[in-house]
Amino acid sequence: MEIYRHGNPTEVLSPCGEEESLDTALRYGADAVYLAGKEFGMRTASKNFDYEQIKNSVRKAHSAGAKLYVTCNTVPKNDEIARLPQHFEILDDIGVDAVIVADVGVMELAKKYAPRTDIHMSTQTGIVNYHTANVLYNMGAKRVVLARELSFDDIAEIRARVPKKLEIECFVHGAMCVSFSGRCLISAYMTGRDANRGDCAQPCRWKYHLFEENREGQYFPVEEDGDGTYLYNSRDMCMIDYIPKLAECGITSFKIEGRAKSAYYTAVTTYAYRNAVDLYYKDKQNYSLPSWIKEELDKISHREYSTGFFLGSEPGQVHSNGGYIRKYDVVAICSGYENGSAFLTQKNKFLVGDELDVLPPNGTPFIITVDELYNSKGESVSSAPHAMEKLVMPCKKEIPAGSFIRKKRIQP
In 10 A of CB 94, how many CB atoms? Predict the structure, then answer.
């Protein structure tokens, strides 16, 4: 049984769409991170990483005791196949810990051109039974990322019927696709942007109306309020309440979705699952999820949460709107603390007198009040209205470097 960075047999795996997210994931306790190069990844909207950036990221991750996986999980067409051998050779030379692939042809190329690199089979492969998992293991896969449409019982049976050496990874948090394991054609049909090649336009989040064939131009809203219906708009997954069950059914790696999301999202989700997993393994018999951990996941932008298919029921859609729930704004990031003052980089406006919520990389969140504020010239100011402004804030309680500082929105 492999023991990961934080001394547990369960891995917390965090998403990185760019370098800030990578640094944040490592600072907030990820056992491993996953990212994509400039090609072959399922998130073209992210900045992603060139080869030099991947090399530097591997160095950072390994220095922190973490692992780094690179996604190569698109379904490549004929003209792309010729570029894959060199891609895998470079990743193998860089020393990435695994490549995540979805296509058996790509898998064969990875085995040949990246022989020192582990192979993880992506959720895009659609693995829903133990026989498929065993076939992929016999073909050379070290890990299978199971389809999101499985229940706890399904996963437990797969775990019982595959070799112990085969690792099982499952998504436990983040956006869910309305299509089976992300295999969607709506975007390609409607916009020409192929979701299976990382370029989804997310038409499942759009507002739709119903038309009758002989009444052109007259729509019939499915909802009474006339705002239309978000027919395909799936809820976000959140499994923070089920850490013991996730571990007990045999999942090796708890995967957080979100390579297209912010570093703050990466910080909060990594922080929540890191703390929950650590507390569980510290005392399994008396484990109980602290309320402050669960509350953290309500401080990021998200859609209504669900438990996906883990409990055997469908996750459901959000029919009322296509947007996010946003209760907090990040107003600053702390770069250091010295002699009773925190050094901040402003992200959103805040004022002297405001109550702020601090998320440190370690420990529990805490509340502070802004009593004084100074700009980079040492002048006393009453507000911080300028993005990226450097500020000094006297504060009796130390704010660790890398902390995110939030302000609760005034709810209507």
Answer: 19
Q: Which two tokens stand for residue 137?
A: 């293991």
> Is pTM, for the whole model, over 0.85?
yes
Q: What angle do CA 104, 11, 96 make, to 5 degrees?
A: 50
Question: For residue 369, which of 399, 337, 339 has the smallest C-alpha distance?
Answer: 399
Q: What's the burial of 262, exposed, middle or buried (CB within 10 Å: 0-12/13-18/19+)? A: middle
pLDDT one-digit tens code per residue, 77-118:
898 899 999 999 999 999 999 999 999 999 999 999 999 999
CA angle, 46 then 50 then 54, to 5°: 100
Write out the H or E segment, with its range, that includes residue 220: strand 219-220
Question: Is residue 1's pLDDT more than 50?
Answer: yes
125 token code pair:
């492969």
pLDDT tens string 218-232:
655 555 344 545 556
Q: Report the chain's C-alpha Rg in angstroms.
A: 23
**What distance in Å separates the CA atoms of residue 90 and residue 19, rounded to the nearest whole number?**
19
Phi and psi angles of residue 214, each rounded to the nearest 5 degrees, phi first: -95, 10
Amino acid at 154: D
